[in-house]
Design brief:
Layout: H1 14-18, H2 23-30, H3 46-58, H4 60-64, H5 67-75, H6 81-91, H7 109-119, E1 126-127, E2 130-131, H8 146-160, E3 167-171, H9 178-192, E4 197-202, H10 205-222, E5 228-232, E6 246-251, H11 252-261, H12 263-270, E7 275-278, H13 287-298, E8 305-309, H14 319-328, E9 333-335, H15 344-350, E10 356-362, H16 372-380, H17 386-393, H18 396-411, E11 416-420, H19 424-436, E12 440-445, H20 450-461, E13 468-473, E14 485-490, H21 497-505, E15 518-524, H22 535-539
Parallel strand pairs: 3-8, 3-9, 4-6, 4-7, 5-6, 7-8, 10-15, 11-13, 11-14, 12-13, 14-15
Antiparallel strand pairs: 1-2
Helix pairs in contact: 2-3, 8-9, 9-10, 11-12, 11-13
Length: 553
Amino acid sequence: MIGKFSGSAPGQRIADVIGRLTRGDLEIIVGPRVLPLVPDAGADRSALEAAALRALSDRPQELLGQEGIRLSVLRNLDAGKLVEMRDRLSQHNLETSSRTPDIPEIATSDFWAIASGFFGLQPEERATGTVSLPREPVSTTFPLFQHQRSVVRRSHDKLFGLKGPGRTVVHMPTGAGKTRTATHLVCRFLNEAEPGVVIWLATSRELLEQAAETFELAWSSLGNRTCELHRCWGSGPTPPEDVEDGIVVAGLAKMHAWLQRDSVGFLRFAARVRFVVMDEAHQAIAPTYKAVIETLCGAGRQAPLLGLTATPGRTWNDIKADQELSDFFGGSKVVLEVGDDRNPVRYLLDHGYLARPKFGQISYRPEFRLTAAEVRKLTAGDDFDEVALERLAGDTARNLAILETAKDLIERGHKRIILFATSVAHAKDMAAGLAANGISASVVSGETPKGQRASIIRTFKLPDPEPQILCNYGVLTTGFDAPRTSAAIIARPTKSLVLYSQMVGRATRGRQAGGNDTCEILTVHDPAYPGFGDIAEAFFNWEDVWNDHEPGH
Protein backbone atom coordinates (compact mmCIF):
# COMPACT_ATOMS: atom_id res chain seq x y z
CA MET A 1 0.00 0.00 0.00
CA ILE A 2 1.40 3.44 -0.92
CA GLY A 3 1.93 5.58 2.13
CA LYS A 4 0.70 9.12 2.68
CA PHE A 5 2.96 12.04 1.78
CA SER A 6 3.32 15.34 3.57
CA GLY A 7 2.40 18.64 1.96
CA SER A 8 -0.20 18.92 -0.81
CA ALA A 9 -2.39 16.07 -2.02
CA PRO A 10 -0.31 13.28 -3.64
CA GLY A 11 -0.04 13.08 -7.41
CA GLN A 12 -0.17 15.63 -10.19
CA ARG A 13 -3.01 15.97 -12.67
CA ILE A 14 -1.70 15.96 -16.20
CA ALA A 15 -3.96 18.93 -16.99
CA ASP A 16 -1.95 21.06 -14.53
CA VAL A 17 1.26 20.37 -16.47
CA ILE A 18 -0.01 21.06 -20.00
CA GLY A 19 0.17 24.86 -19.68
CA ARG A 20 3.88 24.72 -18.78
CA LEU A 21 4.98 22.75 -21.82
CA THR A 22 6.53 24.48 -24.84
CA ARG A 23 4.59 24.80 -28.08
CA GLY A 24 7.05 22.30 -29.61
CA ASP A 25 6.29 19.77 -26.85
CA LEU A 26 2.56 20.24 -27.41
CA GLU A 27 2.88 19.74 -31.15
CA ILE A 28 4.84 16.51 -30.63
CA ILE A 29 2.13 15.24 -28.25
CA VAL A 30 -0.69 16.16 -30.66
CA GLY A 31 1.13 14.50 -33.56
CA PRO A 32 1.31 15.19 -37.30
CA ARG A 33 -2.09 13.74 -38.16
CA VAL A 34 -4.01 15.86 -35.66
CA LEU A 35 -1.94 19.04 -35.82
CA PRO A 36 -3.52 20.22 -39.14
CA LEU A 37 -6.92 19.98 -37.46
CA VAL A 38 -5.96 22.42 -34.69
CA PRO A 39 -6.99 26.06 -35.36
CA ASP A 40 -4.01 28.46 -35.48
CA ALA A 41 -4.81 31.27 -33.08
CA GLY A 42 -1.35 32.79 -32.88
CA ALA A 43 -0.33 33.44 -29.30
CA ASP A 44 -3.49 31.78 -27.99
CA ARG A 45 -2.46 28.18 -27.28
CA SER A 46 -5.80 27.02 -25.82
CA ALA A 47 -6.79 24.92 -28.85
CA LEU A 48 -3.37 23.26 -29.01
CA GLU A 49 -3.40 22.60 -25.25
CA ALA A 50 -6.90 21.09 -25.48
CA ALA A 51 -5.78 18.73 -28.24
CA ALA A 52 -2.66 17.73 -26.26
CA LEU A 53 -4.68 17.06 -23.12
CA ARG A 54 -7.11 14.92 -25.12
CA ALA A 55 -4.25 12.96 -26.66
CA LEU A 56 -2.55 12.36 -23.30
CA SER A 57 -5.86 11.29 -21.77
CA ASP A 58 -6.61 8.85 -24.59
CA ARG A 59 -3.08 7.49 -25.22
CA PRO A 60 -1.13 8.17 -22.02
CA GLN A 61 1.00 5.05 -21.88
CA GLU A 62 1.96 5.31 -25.54
CA LEU A 63 2.90 9.01 -25.36
CA LEU A 64 4.61 9.01 -21.96
CA GLY A 65 6.52 5.97 -23.12
CA GLN A 66 8.39 8.32 -25.49
CA GLU A 67 11.44 9.61 -23.63
CA GLY A 68 11.25 13.21 -24.91
CA ILE A 69 7.60 13.69 -23.93
CA ARG A 70 8.11 11.88 -20.63
CA LEU A 71 11.08 14.09 -19.60
CA SER A 72 9.24 17.27 -20.58
CA VAL A 73 6.21 16.31 -18.48
CA LEU A 74 8.22 15.23 -15.43
CA ARG A 75 10.43 18.37 -15.47
CA ASN A 76 7.30 20.55 -15.41
CA LEU A 77 5.75 18.99 -12.31
CA ASP A 78 4.94 21.14 -9.30
CA ALA A 79 7.68 21.63 -6.75
CA GLY A 80 8.23 18.49 -4.72
CA LYS A 81 6.14 16.26 -7.00
CA LEU A 82 9.18 14.73 -8.68
CA VAL A 83 10.51 13.73 -5.25
CA GLU A 84 7.11 12.26 -4.46
CA MET A 85 7.22 10.25 -7.67
CA ARG A 86 10.66 8.86 -6.80
CA ASP A 87 9.48 8.02 -3.26
CA ARG A 88 6.57 6.04 -4.66
CA LEU A 89 8.92 4.12 -6.93
CA SER A 90 11.36 3.34 -4.14
CA GLN A 91 8.54 1.90 -2.01
CA HIS A 92 7.92 -0.57 -4.84
CA ASN A 93 11.66 -1.26 -5.40
CA LEU A 94 11.64 0.24 -8.92
CA GLU A 95 14.94 1.70 -10.13
CA THR A 96 15.42 5.06 -11.82
CA SER A 97 17.17 5.49 -15.15
CA SER A 98 20.96 5.47 -15.01
CA ARG A 99 21.07 8.07 -17.82
CA THR A 100 18.81 10.51 -16.03
CA PRO A 101 19.13 9.72 -12.29
CA ASP A 102 17.04 12.76 -11.37
CA ILE A 103 14.14 11.57 -13.55
CA PRO A 104 12.37 8.23 -12.85
CA GLU A 105 12.34 5.64 -15.60
CA ILE A 106 8.82 5.17 -16.94
CA ALA A 107 9.29 2.58 -19.66
CA THR A 108 8.34 -0.51 -17.64
CA SER A 109 4.84 -1.79 -17.06
CA ASP A 110 5.61 -1.95 -13.34
CA PHE A 111 6.32 1.78 -13.35
CA TRP A 112 3.15 2.52 -15.26
CA ALA A 113 1.08 0.93 -12.48
CA ILE A 114 2.45 3.71 -10.24
CA ALA A 115 2.56 6.54 -12.78
CA SER A 116 -0.99 6.03 -14.05
CA GLY A 117 -2.39 6.62 -10.58
CA PHE A 118 0.02 9.51 -9.99
CA PHE A 119 -1.23 11.34 -13.07
CA GLY A 120 -4.86 10.22 -12.72
CA LEU A 121 -4.74 8.44 -16.07
CA GLN A 122 -5.96 5.04 -17.26
CA PRO A 123 -3.55 2.99 -19.44
CA GLU A 124 -4.95 2.07 -22.84
CA GLU A 125 -4.99 -1.48 -24.23
CA ARG A 126 -2.39 -0.56 -26.89
CA ALA A 127 1.07 0.31 -25.47
CA THR A 128 4.27 1.13 -27.37
CA GLY A 129 3.00 -0.50 -30.54
CA THR A 130 2.24 -3.86 -28.91
CA VAL A 131 -1.35 -5.14 -29.04
CA SER A 132 -2.41 -6.73 -25.78
CA LEU A 133 -5.08 -9.43 -25.86
CA PRO A 134 -5.85 -10.04 -22.17
CA ARG A 135 -7.81 -13.05 -21.03
CA GLU A 136 -10.78 -12.08 -18.92
CA PRO A 137 -13.84 -13.94 -17.63
CA VAL A 138 -17.20 -13.00 -19.16
CA SER A 139 -19.90 -13.63 -16.60
CA THR A 140 -23.59 -14.35 -16.97
CA THR A 141 -26.31 -12.71 -14.91
CA PHE A 142 -28.02 -16.07 -14.31
CA PRO A 143 -25.30 -18.64 -13.59
CA LEU A 144 -25.46 -22.15 -12.16
CA PHE A 145 -23.01 -24.07 -10.01
CA GLN A 146 -21.37 -27.09 -11.61
CA HIS A 147 -23.62 -29.56 -9.75
CA GLN A 148 -26.70 -27.64 -10.91
CA ARG A 149 -25.46 -27.68 -14.52
CA SER A 150 -25.11 -31.45 -14.23
CA VAL A 151 -28.76 -31.71 -13.17
CA VAL A 152 -29.78 -29.66 -16.22
CA ARG A 153 -27.86 -31.92 -18.61
CA ARG A 154 -29.14 -35.19 -17.16
CA SER A 155 -32.73 -33.95 -16.86
CA HIS A 156 -32.70 -32.72 -20.46
CA ASP A 157 -31.60 -36.16 -21.65
CA LYS A 158 -34.44 -37.86 -19.77
CA LEU A 159 -37.06 -35.38 -20.96
CA PHE A 160 -36.01 -34.76 -24.55
CA GLY A 161 -33.69 -37.67 -25.37
CA LEU A 162 -33.82 -40.16 -28.23
CA LYS A 163 -36.56 -42.18 -26.55
CA GLY A 164 -38.96 -39.28 -26.97
CA PRO A 165 -40.80 -37.13 -24.43
CA GLY A 166 -40.13 -38.43 -20.95
CA ARG A 167 -40.93 -37.84 -17.32
CA THR A 168 -38.56 -37.28 -14.43
CA VAL A 169 -38.36 -35.68 -11.01
CA VAL A 170 -35.52 -33.35 -10.09
CA HIS A 171 -34.78 -34.05 -6.44
CA MET A 172 -32.69 -31.30 -4.82
CA PRO A 173 -32.58 -30.41 -1.14
CA THR A 174 -33.82 -27.18 0.36
CA GLY A 175 -31.81 -24.19 -0.76
CA ALA A 176 -29.99 -26.03 -3.56
CA GLY A 177 -31.71 -24.00 -6.30
CA LYS A 178 -34.47 -26.19 -7.77
CA THR A 179 -36.37 -23.27 -9.29
CA ARG A 180 -33.25 -21.69 -10.74
CA THR A 181 -32.05 -25.01 -12.17
CA ALA A 182 -35.43 -25.89 -13.68
CA THR A 183 -35.73 -22.43 -15.22
CA HIS A 184 -32.54 -23.12 -17.17
CA LEU A 185 -34.28 -26.21 -18.59
CA VAL A 186 -37.33 -24.14 -19.51
CA CYS A 187 -35.19 -21.49 -21.23
CA ARG A 188 -33.23 -24.15 -23.10
CA PHE A 189 -36.48 -25.71 -24.32
CA LEU A 190 -37.93 -22.38 -25.46
CA ASN A 191 -34.70 -21.48 -27.25
CA GLU A 192 -34.83 -24.76 -29.19
CA ALA A 193 -38.60 -24.93 -29.75
CA GLU A 194 -40.02 -21.91 -31.56
CA PRO A 195 -42.83 -21.37 -31.02
CA GLY A 196 -43.29 -23.32 -27.80
CA VAL A 197 -45.60 -23.17 -24.79
CA VAL A 198 -44.47 -24.21 -21.30
CA ILE A 199 -46.80 -24.47 -18.33
CA TRP A 200 -45.41 -24.28 -14.79
CA LEU A 201 -47.80 -25.60 -12.12
CA ALA A 202 -47.84 -25.17 -8.32
CA THR A 203 -50.41 -24.85 -5.56
CA SER A 204 -49.20 -21.85 -3.55
CA ARG A 205 -49.01 -18.24 -4.63
CA GLU A 206 -45.50 -17.93 -3.15
CA LEU A 207 -44.09 -20.65 -5.40
CA LEU A 208 -46.00 -19.38 -8.42
CA GLU A 209 -44.76 -15.81 -7.94
CA GLN A 210 -41.22 -17.07 -7.42
CA ALA A 211 -41.39 -19.11 -10.64
CA ALA A 212 -42.68 -16.13 -12.63
CA GLU A 213 -40.05 -13.75 -11.27
CA THR A 214 -37.26 -16.29 -11.76
CA PHE A 215 -38.27 -16.82 -15.38
CA GLU A 216 -38.27 -13.05 -15.99
CA LEU A 217 -34.75 -12.81 -14.62
CA ALA A 218 -33.50 -15.91 -16.44
CA TRP A 219 -35.01 -15.19 -19.85
CA SER A 220 -33.52 -11.69 -19.92
CA SER A 221 -30.10 -13.37 -19.73
CA LEU A 222 -30.66 -16.69 -21.52
CA GLY A 223 -33.50 -16.08 -23.99
CA ASN A 224 -33.14 -15.65 -27.74
CA ARG A 225 -36.36 -13.72 -28.43
CA THR A 226 -39.29 -11.96 -26.77
CA CYS A 227 -41.67 -14.41 -25.09
CA GLU A 228 -44.93 -13.98 -23.22
CA LEU A 229 -45.26 -14.67 -19.49
CA HIS A 230 -48.79 -15.34 -18.21
CA ARG A 231 -49.59 -15.27 -14.47
CA CYS A 232 -52.70 -17.35 -13.85
CA TRP A 233 -53.57 -18.01 -10.22
CA GLY A 234 -55.86 -16.74 -7.49
CA SER A 235 -58.18 -14.09 -8.89
CA GLY A 236 -56.11 -13.80 -12.06
CA PRO A 237 -57.30 -14.87 -15.54
CA THR A 238 -57.28 -18.37 -16.97
CA PRO A 239 -54.58 -18.94 -19.60
CA PRO A 240 -55.48 -17.70 -23.09
CA GLU A 241 -56.55 -20.55 -25.36
CA ASP A 242 -54.61 -19.09 -28.27
CA VAL A 243 -51.23 -18.66 -26.54
CA GLU A 244 -48.47 -19.54 -29.01
CA ASP A 245 -45.08 -18.83 -27.49
CA GLY A 246 -43.91 -18.42 -23.90
CA ILE A 247 -44.61 -19.67 -20.41
CA VAL A 248 -47.83 -19.91 -18.40
CA VAL A 249 -47.36 -19.98 -14.61
CA ALA A 250 -50.62 -21.37 -13.25
CA GLY A 251 -52.21 -22.47 -9.99
CA LEU A 252 -53.37 -26.06 -10.02
CA ALA A 253 -56.64 -25.19 -8.32
CA LYS A 254 -57.44 -22.66 -11.06
CA MET A 255 -56.54 -25.15 -13.79
CA HIS A 256 -58.68 -27.88 -12.21
CA ALA A 257 -61.64 -25.49 -11.92
CA TRP A 258 -61.21 -24.56 -15.60
CA LEU A 259 -61.14 -28.21 -16.65
CA GLN A 260 -64.33 -28.87 -14.70
CA ARG A 261 -66.09 -25.75 -15.98
CA ASP A 262 -65.01 -25.69 -19.63
CA SER A 263 -63.31 -28.89 -20.72
CA VAL A 264 -63.37 -27.90 -24.41
CA GLY A 265 -61.59 -24.60 -23.79
CA PHE A 266 -59.11 -26.33 -21.51
CA LEU A 267 -58.38 -28.95 -24.21
CA ARG A 268 -57.79 -26.23 -26.81
CA PHE A 269 -55.21 -24.68 -24.52
CA ALA A 270 -53.68 -28.03 -23.53
CA ALA A 271 -53.16 -28.95 -27.19
CA ARG A 272 -50.68 -26.08 -27.46
CA VAL A 273 -48.62 -27.11 -24.40
CA ARG A 274 -45.29 -28.75 -25.19
CA PHE A 275 -43.58 -28.91 -21.79
CA VAL A 276 -45.11 -29.29 -18.29
CA VAL A 277 -43.34 -28.43 -15.02
CA MET A 278 -44.90 -29.54 -11.72
CA ASP A 279 -43.32 -27.53 -8.90
CA GLU A 280 -44.70 -29.60 -6.04
CA ALA A 281 -44.18 -32.99 -7.61
CA HIS A 282 -45.33 -34.92 -4.56
CA GLN A 283 -48.86 -33.56 -5.18
CA ALA A 284 -48.99 -34.75 -8.79
CA ILE A 285 -51.13 -37.83 -8.09
CA ALA A 286 -53.75 -36.06 -5.99
CA PRO A 287 -57.15 -36.90 -7.57
CA THR A 288 -57.91 -33.21 -8.19
CA TYR A 289 -54.65 -32.62 -10.04
CA LYS A 290 -53.72 -35.84 -11.79
CA ALA A 291 -56.34 -35.36 -14.51
CA VAL A 292 -55.11 -31.79 -15.11
CA ILE A 293 -51.52 -32.94 -15.58
CA GLU A 294 -52.37 -35.91 -17.77
CA THR A 295 -54.55 -33.73 -20.00
CA LEU A 296 -51.83 -31.10 -20.35
CA CYS A 297 -49.26 -33.77 -21.21
CA GLY A 298 -51.42 -35.66 -23.70
CA ALA A 299 -53.97 -33.36 -25.33
CA GLY A 300 -51.74 -32.50 -28.27
CA ARG A 301 -48.23 -33.59 -29.00
CA GLN A 302 -47.05 -35.72 -26.06
CA ALA A 303 -45.43 -33.23 -23.67
CA PRO A 304 -42.53 -34.04 -21.32
CA LEU A 305 -43.25 -33.74 -17.59
CA LEU A 306 -40.71 -32.39 -15.10
CA GLY A 307 -41.37 -32.65 -11.38
CA LEU A 308 -39.53 -30.58 -8.78
CA THR A 309 -39.21 -31.41 -5.12
CA ALA A 310 -36.98 -31.57 -2.09
CA THR A 311 -39.14 -34.42 -0.81
CA PRO A 312 -40.02 -36.96 -3.55
CA GLY A 313 -42.81 -38.66 -1.66
CA ARG A 314 -46.48 -37.93 -1.23
CA THR A 315 -46.76 -38.91 2.43
CA TRP A 316 -44.56 -39.53 5.40
CA ASN A 317 -45.59 -43.11 6.03
CA ASP A 318 -47.79 -44.45 3.18
CA ILE A 319 -45.45 -46.55 1.05
CA LYS A 320 -48.23 -47.41 -1.42
CA ALA A 321 -48.92 -43.72 -2.18
CA ASP A 322 -45.22 -43.04 -2.53
CA GLN A 323 -44.89 -45.94 -4.98
CA GLU A 324 -47.80 -44.55 -6.98
CA LEU A 325 -45.99 -41.22 -7.26
CA SER A 326 -42.83 -42.96 -8.38
CA ASP A 327 -44.77 -44.87 -11.04
CA PHE A 328 -46.40 -41.65 -12.26
CA PHE A 329 -42.94 -40.30 -13.11
CA GLY A 330 -41.75 -43.62 -14.52
CA GLY A 331 -39.49 -44.24 -11.55
CA SER A 332 -37.11 -41.64 -12.96
CA LYS A 333 -35.34 -39.24 -10.66
CA VAL A 334 -32.38 -36.90 -11.13
CA VAL A 335 -30.41 -36.01 -8.01
CA LEU A 336 -27.36 -33.90 -7.31
CA GLU A 337 -24.08 -35.57 -8.21
CA VAL A 338 -21.65 -34.54 -5.50
CA GLY A 339 -18.78 -37.00 -5.67
CA ASP A 340 -18.79 -40.07 -3.46
CA ASP A 341 -21.04 -38.58 -0.78
CA ARG A 342 -24.58 -39.95 -1.14
CA ASN A 343 -25.92 -37.23 1.13
CA PRO A 344 -26.16 -34.04 -0.96
CA VAL A 345 -27.29 -32.01 2.04
CA ARG A 346 -24.09 -32.85 3.88
CA TYR A 347 -22.01 -32.07 0.79
CA LEU A 348 -23.67 -28.68 0.23
CA LEU A 349 -23.23 -27.78 3.89
CA ASP A 350 -19.62 -28.96 4.13
CA HIS A 351 -18.59 -27.14 0.94
CA GLY A 352 -20.26 -23.84 1.77
CA TYR A 353 -23.09 -23.90 -0.77
CA LEU A 354 -25.61 -23.92 2.07
CA ALA A 355 -25.41 -22.18 5.42
CA ARG A 356 -25.59 -24.69 8.27
CA PRO A 357 -29.06 -24.14 9.75
CA LYS A 358 -29.96 -24.23 13.40
CA PHE A 359 -33.67 -25.01 13.81
CA GLY A 360 -35.77 -23.90 16.75
CA GLN A 361 -39.39 -23.41 17.77
CA ILE A 362 -41.31 -20.40 18.99
CA SER A 363 -43.85 -21.52 21.57
CA TYR A 364 -46.84 -19.67 22.95
CA ARG A 365 -50.19 -20.32 24.63
CA PRO A 366 -52.88 -19.90 21.90
CA GLU A 367 -55.91 -17.77 22.58
CA PHE A 368 -58.28 -20.11 20.69
CA ARG A 369 -58.78 -23.76 19.81
CA LEU A 370 -59.94 -25.19 16.51
CA THR A 371 -63.44 -26.58 16.36
CA ALA A 372 -64.08 -30.12 15.13
CA ALA A 373 -65.41 -28.72 11.84
CA GLU A 374 -62.29 -26.60 11.40
CA VAL A 375 -60.07 -29.61 12.04
CA ARG A 376 -61.96 -31.61 9.37
CA LYS A 377 -61.65 -28.74 6.88
CA LEU A 378 -57.97 -28.38 7.69
CA THR A 379 -57.38 -32.08 7.13
CA ALA A 380 -59.23 -32.14 3.80
CA GLY A 381 -57.52 -29.11 2.22
CA ASP A 382 -54.17 -28.94 0.50
CA ASP A 383 -53.05 -26.16 2.81
CA PHE A 384 -54.43 -23.67 5.29
CA ASP A 385 -56.93 -21.28 3.77
CA GLU A 386 -56.83 -17.52 4.24
CA VAL A 387 -59.54 -17.60 6.91
CA ALA A 388 -57.50 -19.94 9.10
CA LEU A 389 -54.35 -17.92 8.56
CA GLU A 390 -56.06 -14.62 9.33
CA ARG A 391 -57.38 -16.06 12.56
CA LEU A 392 -53.86 -16.87 13.64
CA ALA A 393 -52.76 -13.38 12.65
CA GLY A 394 -54.99 -11.89 15.35
CA ASP A 395 -53.60 -13.98 18.22
CA THR A 396 -51.91 -11.46 20.51
CA ALA A 397 -49.94 -14.06 22.48
CA ARG A 398 -48.58 -15.47 19.24
CA ASN A 399 -47.57 -12.05 17.96
CA LEU A 400 -45.85 -11.15 21.22
CA ALA A 401 -43.85 -14.38 21.03
CA ILE A 402 -42.78 -13.53 17.47
CA LEU A 403 -41.82 -10.00 18.53
CA GLU A 404 -39.70 -11.23 21.44
CA THR A 405 -37.98 -13.73 19.16
CA ALA A 406 -37.10 -10.99 16.67
CA LYS A 407 -35.67 -8.81 19.45
CA ASP A 408 -33.61 -11.72 20.76
CA LEU A 409 -32.18 -12.46 17.30
CA ILE A 410 -31.07 -8.84 16.93
CA GLU A 411 -29.54 -8.79 20.42
CA ARG A 412 -27.51 -11.86 19.43
CA GLY A 413 -26.06 -10.09 16.40
CA HIS A 414 -28.36 -10.90 13.45
CA LYS A 415 -28.56 -7.94 11.05
CA ARG A 416 -30.93 -9.20 8.33
CA ILE A 417 -33.99 -11.28 9.23
CA ILE A 418 -36.95 -12.43 7.14
CA LEU A 419 -40.31 -12.89 8.82
CA PHE A 420 -42.87 -14.98 6.94
CA ALA A 421 -46.25 -13.73 8.12
CA THR A 422 -49.63 -15.47 8.04
CA SER A 423 -51.31 -12.81 5.89
CA VAL A 424 -50.71 -9.40 4.32
CA ALA A 425 -52.40 -7.72 7.28
CA HIS A 426 -50.26 -9.74 9.67
CA ALA A 427 -47.07 -8.66 7.86
CA LYS A 428 -48.12 -5.01 8.25
CA ASP A 429 -49.08 -5.52 11.90
CA MET A 430 -45.73 -7.10 12.72
CA ALA A 431 -43.82 -4.38 10.89
CA ALA A 432 -45.66 -1.74 12.93
CA GLY A 433 -45.00 -3.64 16.15
CA LEU A 434 -41.33 -3.98 15.33
CA ALA A 435 -41.09 -0.27 14.52
CA ALA A 436 -42.70 0.53 17.87
CA ASN A 437 -39.86 -1.39 19.48
CA GLY A 438 -37.19 0.57 17.63
CA ILE A 439 -36.53 -2.06 14.95
CA SER A 440 -36.32 -1.13 11.27
CA ALA A 441 -38.93 -3.19 9.40
CA SER A 442 -40.56 -3.19 5.97
CA VAL A 443 -43.31 -5.16 4.23
CA VAL A 444 -43.28 -7.09 0.95
CA SER A 445 -46.36 -8.93 -0.32
CA GLY A 446 -48.14 -9.81 -3.51
CA GLU A 447 -49.86 -6.42 -3.24
CA THR A 448 -46.58 -4.48 -3.23
CA PRO A 449 -45.95 -2.80 -6.61
CA LYS A 450 -42.97 -4.32 -8.38
CA GLY A 451 -40.90 -1.12 -8.35
CA GLN A 452 -41.54 -0.53 -4.65
CA ARG A 453 -40.77 -4.17 -3.88
CA ALA A 454 -37.43 -3.93 -5.72
CA SER A 455 -36.57 -0.78 -3.78
CA ILE A 456 -37.39 -2.41 -0.43
CA ILE A 457 -35.32 -5.49 -1.19
CA ARG A 458 -32.44 -3.36 -2.50
CA THR A 459 -32.40 -1.46 0.81
CA PHE A 460 -32.56 -4.75 2.72
CA LYS A 461 -29.47 -5.98 0.85
CA LEU A 462 -27.35 -2.88 1.54
CA PRO A 463 -24.44 -3.30 4.00
CA ASP A 464 -26.03 -0.92 6.50
CA PRO A 465 -25.06 -1.99 10.06
CA GLU A 466 -28.56 -1.23 11.34
CA PRO A 467 -30.60 -4.44 11.80
CA GLN A 468 -33.53 -4.83 9.42
CA ILE A 469 -36.47 -7.22 9.31
CA LEU A 470 -38.38 -7.91 6.11
CA CYS A 471 -41.98 -8.96 6.80
CA ASN A 472 -43.22 -11.05 3.87
CA TYR A 473 -46.42 -12.70 2.76
CA GLY A 474 -47.33 -14.30 -0.55
CA VAL A 475 -44.02 -13.88 -2.37
CA LEU A 476 -40.73 -15.76 -2.34
CA THR A 477 -38.90 -13.41 -4.67
CA THR A 478 -35.39 -14.40 -5.72
CA GLY A 479 -34.14 -11.14 -4.26
CA PHE A 480 -34.83 -12.57 -0.81
CA ASP A 481 -31.62 -14.59 -0.89
CA ALA A 482 -29.76 -11.43 0.12
CA PRO A 483 -26.33 -12.55 1.31
CA ARG A 484 -26.57 -11.00 4.77
CA THR A 485 -29.83 -12.77 5.64
CA SER A 486 -28.88 -14.96 8.58
CA ALA A 487 -32.22 -15.78 10.20
CA ALA A 488 -35.80 -16.57 9.26
CA ILE A 489 -38.89 -16.48 11.46
CA ILE A 490 -41.53 -18.73 9.92
CA ALA A 491 -44.85 -17.60 11.33
CA ARG A 492 -46.88 -18.93 8.42
CA PRO A 493 -48.03 -22.51 9.04
CA THR A 494 -48.20 -24.74 5.99
CA LYS A 495 -48.89 -28.37 5.17
CA SER A 496 -46.59 -28.13 2.17
CA LEU A 497 -43.06 -29.23 2.93
CA VAL A 498 -42.07 -27.71 -0.40
CA LEU A 499 -43.36 -24.28 0.62
CA TYR A 500 -41.75 -24.65 4.04
CA SER A 501 -38.49 -25.62 2.36
CA GLN A 502 -38.67 -22.55 0.13
CA MET A 503 -39.08 -20.30 3.17
CA VAL A 504 -36.15 -22.00 4.88
CA GLY A 505 -34.10 -21.57 1.72
CA ARG A 506 -34.31 -17.77 1.88
CA ALA A 507 -31.85 -17.82 4.80
CA THR A 508 -29.65 -20.81 3.93
CA ARG A 509 -27.47 -19.22 1.28
CA GLY A 510 -23.91 -20.38 1.95
CA ARG A 511 -20.51 -18.75 1.53
CA GLN A 512 -20.10 -20.08 -2.02
CA ALA A 513 -23.27 -18.19 -2.94
CA GLY A 514 -22.24 -15.02 -1.10
CA GLY A 515 -24.03 -15.90 2.13
CA ASN A 516 -23.18 -17.17 5.60
CA ASP A 517 -21.62 -20.19 7.32
CA THR A 518 -24.61 -20.62 9.63
CA CYS A 519 -28.19 -19.41 9.96
CA GLU A 520 -31.14 -19.74 12.31
CA ILE A 521 -34.60 -20.96 11.33
CA LEU A 522 -37.24 -20.37 14.00
CA THR A 523 -40.73 -21.73 13.33
CA VAL A 524 -43.82 -20.79 15.31
CA HIS A 525 -45.22 -23.94 16.89
CA ASP A 526 -49.00 -23.90 16.56
CA PRO A 527 -50.26 -26.86 18.65
CA ALA A 528 -53.20 -27.68 16.36
CA TYR A 529 -51.21 -27.48 13.13
CA PRO A 530 -48.79 -30.05 11.60
CA GLY A 531 -45.03 -29.54 11.92
CA PHE A 532 -41.95 -30.53 10.00
CA GLY A 533 -38.90 -32.72 10.63
CA ASP A 534 -35.25 -32.33 9.81
CA ILE A 535 -34.72 -31.46 6.14
CA ALA A 536 -31.92 -34.00 5.63
CA GLU A 537 -34.09 -36.76 7.12
CA ALA A 538 -37.01 -35.70 4.92
CA PHE A 539 -34.80 -35.69 1.84
CA PHE A 540 -34.06 -39.43 2.15
CA ASN A 541 -37.43 -40.55 3.50
CA TRP A 542 -38.67 -42.01 0.21
CA GLU A 543 -35.51 -43.43 -1.39
CA ASP A 544 -36.77 -47.00 -1.28
CA VAL A 545 -39.62 -46.45 -3.77
CA TRP A 546 -37.64 -44.67 -6.48
CA ASN A 547 -36.03 -46.78 -9.16
CA ASP A 548 -33.32 -44.42 -10.32
CA HIS A 549 -31.70 -45.83 -13.46
CA GLU A 550 -28.73 -43.46 -13.48
CA PRO A 551 -25.37 -45.21 -13.12
CA GLY A 552 -24.02 -45.12 -9.61
CA HIS A 553 -27.42 -44.50 -7.95
